Amino acid sequence: MKLLLHICCAPCSIYPLEVLREKGFEVMGFFYRNNIHPYNECKRREDALKAYAEQIGLRVIYQEGYDLEGFLRSLVFREDQRCRFCYYDRLKTSAKMAKRGKFDYFSSTLLYSRHQNHELIAEIGESVAKTEGVTFYYEDFRKGWKTGVEKSKQMGMYRQQYCGCIYSEKERFFSANG
User: Please, what are the domains in the chain?
Assistant: First the structure.
């Protein structure tokens, strides 16, 4: 059972990878980068994932390029729906990659985060699965949230402070400063 796992960052991959491997999946990672801003943040996350992947023997496909403009164009005047568009873009790209690579399934570490809209991710994942012809694997990985956080801290792993897009970075600063 081959599964392509969209990975947003190394800390969020710890628990899902453990669970999927325990269930017998042959997992390959996919790092999608267009939604992560600024570029130096994207590189920090990518470098942390590369180090972790090497440590645990995980093969990862790293998206080429950095289409900041394309990502922002897709959200202009729809900022209130940015997560929907971002989930769709990441899951659609992952499904296409999974189909091309002849994977049985695709999934996402977004399903690990307590800060993401699980129902919307599942809905989009299932929809994309139908159009792309590859099965979306859903599992609620949130029950391992604390485990993943603790392990990432023990490993001294880079831990980002926001989801990734420039809008979530703005919210991080505005929330902290009232």
Answer: 2-176 (3.40.50.620)
